[in-house]
């Protein structure tokens, strides 16, 4: 058998022999390495002690596996990779922005429970560190920009595309961005090749319009 054919013949067996590896779960590149991020929250009673990245910690509990961070019930999360009986999570504001592995029975995904339509994409979205995204429509196409601090210019265009339901894929090579519409939250992930204003656009953004509607609702209740 020729060498080339031998390599091709062995490839399937080599793939089978490769053991799956525990996914990365850290704050440094959370929005570049986690697939299919979904917003959610901590459920049930008692604080959740997050587990760190140490090898073997998700297979057998070991001394020193806990990251030292605890998350209160009801805390908002963005939920990523699953390994064994754990999910990689990042805590969202107003909680401390920590990352770690949480037991799957203590987290619930809520991101796609709310009904959305094309108009749900539109408007301004507030992220961490004062970042603001703006999404405008031109026909069926959405234009997504990162606004500068103070919002005194048009900002930087991240990309333009037609959404596919609750998903939007945009960016110019080498940058690739995925936006996931999840109720009043917008989750952005990127391929690590995007620098909008010198930083990755990845993160969770909250609809300013939805927040304003809630404020008016509470004001109306208070006036009664």
Number-wise, the strands total 15
Output the radius of gyration.
Answer: 21 Å
Q: Quick one: CATH class of the largest domain?
A: Mainly Beta
Mean residue pLDDT: 88
- Per CATH, which architecture of the largest domain? Beta Barrel
Q: Strand order, biggest sheet?
A: 11-10-9-8-15-14-13-12
Order of helices and strands: HHEEEEEEEEEEEEEEEH
Q: What structural class do you assign from the helix and strand content?
A: alpha+beta
Total discrete domains: 2
How much of the polypeptide forms β-strand, as a percent range? 35-45%
The helicity comes to: 10-25%
The shape, in one word, is globular
Largest beta-sheet details: 8 strands, antiparallel
- At the fold tier of CATH, the topology name of the largest domain is Lipocalin
Alpha-carbon distance between the termini? 85 Å
Unreliable residue runs: 1-16
Question: If helices are DSSP runs of H or I spanning 4 or more residues, what is the number of helices?
Answer: 3
Protein name: Secreted protein
Keywords: Signal
């Amino acid at each position: 058998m020729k060498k080339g054919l031998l390599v091709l013949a062995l490839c399937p067996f080599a793939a089978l022999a490769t053991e799956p590896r525990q996914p990365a779960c850290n704050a440094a590149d959370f929005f570049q390495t986690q697939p299919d991020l979904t917003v959610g929250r901590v459920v049930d009673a008692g604080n959740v002690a997050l587990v760190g990245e140490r090898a073997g910690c998700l297979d057998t509990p070991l001394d020193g596996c806990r990251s030292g961070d605890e998350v209160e019930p009801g805390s908002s999360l963005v939920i990523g990779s699953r390994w064994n009986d754990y999910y990689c999570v990042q805590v969202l504001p107003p909680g401390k922005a920590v990352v770690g592995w949480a037991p799957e029975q203590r987290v619930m995904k809520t991101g796609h429970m709310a009904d959305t339509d094309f108009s749900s994409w539109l408007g301004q979205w507030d992220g961490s560190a004062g970042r603001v995204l703006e999404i405008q429509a031109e026909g069926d196409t959405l234009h997504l920009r990162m606004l500068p601090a103070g919002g005194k210019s048009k900002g930087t265009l991240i990309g333009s595309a037609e959404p596919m339901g609750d998903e939007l894929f945009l960016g110019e090579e080498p940058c690739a961005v995925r936006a996931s519409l999840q109720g009043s939250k917008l989750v952005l992930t990127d391929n690590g090749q995007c620098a909008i204003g010198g930083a990755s656009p990845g993160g969770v953004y909250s609809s300013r319009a939805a927040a304003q509607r809630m404020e008016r609702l509470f004001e109306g209740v208070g006036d009664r």
